Amino acid sequence: MAALPRLCSAILFLLCICLQGGSQAAGAKCSLSSIIIKQAKTGALVEGKPEYEVTMTNACNCPQSKVLVQCYGLSSVLPVNPRSIRAVDDTNCIVKAGQPVVRGAPVKFKYAWMTPQDFPLVSSKISC
Fold first, then answer.
1. What was the pLDDT predicted at 73?
2. Which residues belong to the signal peptide in this entry (predicted)?
3. Edge-to-edge, what's the strand order for the sheet holding 49-58?
4. Residue 12 forms part of a structural domain
5. Core-most of 36, 90, 95, 98, by most CB within 10 Å?
6. Contact 42, 110 (CB under 8 A)
7. Could you tell me which of 127, 128, 101, 104 has the C-alpha nearest to residue 119?
């Protein structure tokens, strides 16, 4: 009978340790590659060019700000929302005007061009 309360206490203690370690581990694993960029054709055509929707998500629990991607001027016949992404020079674009990209709040934008563009990650500032 006395073993049951001890067993429950031990399980509760281990659970607390695991939960604390899990949240620290999630922060420790954050990196630039925690920003996941996906794009897909929407099916629409703009001036005869296919439209693409890009979704940038942060898989990390820690916000990432000042996210820079290569975009080479971000070619599009469709105006691109500058609050989502805008060119800062001939090579790079800043995402969300440098504001934090947080888990659960993806950044989305659409563009239309002959071929899909790559958006390789350049840098970010991780804040934990």
1. 81
2. 1-25
3. 35-46, 49-58, 107-112
4. no
5. 95
6. yes
7. 101
Name the residue with tokens 């990650």: 121
Q: How many helices (H) and strands (E) does the chain have?
A: 1, 7
Residues 69 and 74: their CA atoms lie apart, in Å, by 10
Long-range contacts of 26-31 (CB under 8 A, 24+ apart): 26/60, 26/61, 26/62, 27/60, 27/61, 27/62, 27/128, 29/60, 30/60, 30/61, 30/62, 30/64, 30/126, 30/128, 31/60, 31/126
Q: What is the CATH number of the domain that holds 43?
A: 2.60.40
- Give the H or E element holding residue 39: strand 35-46
Strands 92-95 and 64-70: antiparallel
Amino acid residing at 3: A
Per-residue pLDDT tens digits for 10-44: 443 433 333 333 343 444 589 999 999 999 999 99
Segments of the chain with pLDDT less than 50: 4-5, 7-27
